[in-house]
Amino acid sequence: xxxxxxxxxxxxxxDTTIPDVLAxxxxxxxxxxxPGLYSGALGLHFARPGNRFWPxxxxxGFTPRRFDPSEQDELLELGIGxxxxxxxxxxxxxxxxxxEFRVGGEILTAKVIEYRPRWLAVVGITAYRSAFGxxxxxxxxxxxxxxxxxxxxxPNPSGLNAHWTQATxxxxxxxxxxxxxxxxxxxxxxxxxxxxx
Length: 197
Fold this sequence. Notes:
With 197 residues, the chain is of the alpha/beta class. It has one domain (21-182): Uracil-DNA glycosylase-like domain (Uracil-DNA Glycosylase, subunit E). The protein is 32% helix and 14% strand.
């Protein structure tokens, strides 16, 4: 289990980066907005206890159980990766500039072309709109493709996004999971749904 960072560790984490969880030919590359200080201090994605990414991933059928952020590297075996639109850690996403989002979208595009995931799933509609210059984009599957990858937008799983409950987040993740199972882009590459032990 992840340990709670100290105030000093949180302060030291500002403007740092954390490594992507990334490999070629993944089923889904999940993309957060940017790491918070809690994630930066621990070097783990979606690490703050109130973040609902990990429960949503499980409820959506991507993992056989709820993973702890400390187990993030095990996602690669399930065909799942994690990155961010903007790599820089901040206390709040509203500290990021429009330019950071624009440049982040370019870096993300290059990453997707290089690593060739079947789907890119951006968790946060505002981040997607800013990074890709699509102010009218809506939740769900997008018309845009990046290379051969389909693009999907999911709700931000932050606990601050109270409009979405854990159950409704899980349901949105499940729709994407179904799309990964029915896609025929690379036959034979789709991993079977995980089974519970």
